[in-house]
Design a protein that fits this description.
Elements: H1 3-27, H2 37-56, H3 64-90
Helix pairs in contact: 1-2, 1-3, 2-3
Amino acid sequence: MDTNIKVTGIHLIFALIASILSTGLSLGWFGIKNELIPAVIAIFLIYIAGQICQKLYKEEVEGFSAWLWNGIVPFIFAWFMLYTLLFNYLK
């Protein structure tokens, strides 16, 4: 499989986790109801996903453009879409 697909897949898995946690925090599942903390969690998880991908595929993925289009943009798009859908559906 291509390295770009693997990097995108890892970021999408972390986006799914971030969207579930964000929805839970926005709806008060964990005893805290706050809309700012989900964004902080998403930034933290995108950083963790980037570090994991950098350790796994450091030599194969180089340059900011590759990280932007294969990791950051898919993460933000998937996180925002899933978070919005889950928040509105479970509200």
